[in-house]
Amino acid sequence: QVQLVESGGGLVQPGGSLRLSCAASGFTFSNSWMNWVRQAPGKGLEWVSNIHPNGANTNYGDSVKGRFTISRDNAKNTLYLQMNSLIPEDTAVYYCKSSDDVWGQGAQVTVSS
């Protein structure tokens, strides 16, 4: 069964940090470009970041560039998103997504004082 399961969301104060994880199973993770996508309350989907199968190439949306870092551990079939200097506008449900359009269930991130 192809599956992506996010974890690590929560409530954090502005300026704080969180790390999201996405555990993959049921497909060859090490062959797949992987993405993070988010959806803020009342808004559409926003692409956040992606990473090449070997981890050497990463890309970021303008709104998170310089604050978020995507990474992966192919030995553990796990994708990560390190989020620093969080601002209230980062509040959203964060999804990991494979290049074959498999989506996780989402992780809620709330940035608030």
Commentary on this structure:
The chain has 113 residues and is mostly beta strands. It is built from no helices and ten strands. It has strands spanning 3-7, 10-12, 18-25, 34-39, 45-51, 58-60, 68-73, 78-83, 92-98, 107-111. The model has no long low-confidence stretch (mean pLDDT 97).
Give structural attributes.
113 residues, mainly beta, six-stranded mixed beta sheet, four-stranded antiparallel beta sheet
Sum this structure up briefly.
The protein is built from no helices and 10 strands. It is an all-beta fold. β4 (34-39) and β5 (45-51) form a beta hairpin.
Please tally the β strands and state the result: 10
The multimeric state of the shown protein is single chain
Order of helices and strands: EEEEEEEEEE
Tally of alpha and pi helices: 0
**Helical fraction:** under 10%
Instruction: Please compute the radius of gyration using only Cα atoms.
Output: 13 Å
Task: Please give the alpha-carbon distance between the first and last residues.
Answer: 40 Å
- Bulk shape: globular
Which stretches are low in confidence, meaning pLDDT under 50 for 5 or more residues running?
A: none
Query: Structural class, judged by helices and strands?
Result: mainly beta
Q: How are the elements arranged and paired?
A:
Layout (H helix, E strand, L loop, with lengths): L2 E5 L2 E3 L5 E8 L8 E6 L5 E7 L6 E3 L7 E6 L4 E6 L8 E7 L8 E5 L2
